[in-house]
Here is the input.
Amino acid sequence: MWFRYLRQFAASTDAQAFAIGAVILITIAVTGLTVYLSVNAPIATKECEFQHSTEVADDFAVLNSTINWMHTVINTRILEYLDGKPEVSERRTAIRSSVKQD
Here is the structure.
């Protein structure tokens, strides 16, 4: 069955011309698309990378301010807790002297 169509195709120069023309047009379209993508894809990639880098910089700025805020809050709470209590070195000396007395 397929051999009959193949023999008809081989005998018809119009069918051969159509097939060769279709192959050439498809090749031109694929080559043009490949060239277009190879030229424009790096540009789009660089734009996305630039947007991402600015977002990362903003995120790090927020992280830095959050860490600084937490640092001041923790230091304030520690100072409030230690307010009126002896320093660490004074407490160690008091413990050492009480151990030596026993």
Q: What stands out?
A: Residues 13-82 form the longest helix (70 residues).
